[in-house]
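Thread: Phosphodiester glycosidase domain-containing protein, structure

OP (GT): Posting the sequence first so everyone is looking at the same thing. Length is 279 residues per the record. Can we get the structure tokens written out before standup tomorrow? I want them in the notebook alongside the other entries.
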Amino acid sequence: MKRLIALAAFLPLSACGEQPAGEPVVRTEIGSGVAEKAAAPSPTPTPTSSVASACESVTFEGAALTHCLADPATHRITTKLGPTGGAPYRSLTKLAADRSDDAPKVAFAMNGGMYDGEGKPIGYYVENGDRLKELNRADGPGNFHMKPNGVFFGTGGKWQIRTADDFYTNVGERPDFGTQSGPMLVIDGELHPEISENGPSKAIRNGVGIDAKGRAHFVISEGPVSFGIIARYFRDVLETPDALFLDGSVSALWDPATDRLDNRAPIGPMIVVEHKDEP
């Protein structure tokens, strides 16, 4: 398939802007009737590397999406918040600039979980085996608390998505990486019960799902879409039994193979997919 990736641009909502330190950034709830501002498309980048991109452009129900595939046979997944002992990067651009020449090559990276006004995760977060934030099972407003929410986590080449309650009950060992977000998009092959077919809330959105082969599928929309569209793409096309919403309006992708590096609104935790070996 010809891999052409449109650069998704977006405008931050006032609800997604900087908040007082420690206060969670609230996202618009599913079906609230509040539509996020539309984002203008950006120019399409051209491939700049001899390495094939792990991402491809697709169309589903009339919506332009970018689908990136991480395979445990060839990739490893890590989470990244900021430099060791430092404040969160808040952008993929700063993450890219801080990568050393001898670091593993990045296949792609996305924002990966909701955060407070300082860019720190509001839910479970593990980086390099260190737990920086405990599991959050509290009630509250916004998409994060549209239960069930869930955790994307893994150790080595085994990657999983579980609802927060399932994770709390059944996961005893700390994973190498983990990030909590919400809501779940697909749960055991069924859509989240509160996701409507094509609700009024539209935003650039991204999510992750795990297929039966253990591969991680990352999807980001190239324009504002409903929760229903992105959830059905995971269920019906990618056939991921479980999929997790990562965020909306601030969603961003770094794809080095095509020189795509989204940089619009401040973000928090990031999911980095690396090549296991030098290509």
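GT: Both are above now. Quick notes for whoever picks this up: DSSP finds three helices and 17 strands in the chain. The chain has one domain: 72-275.
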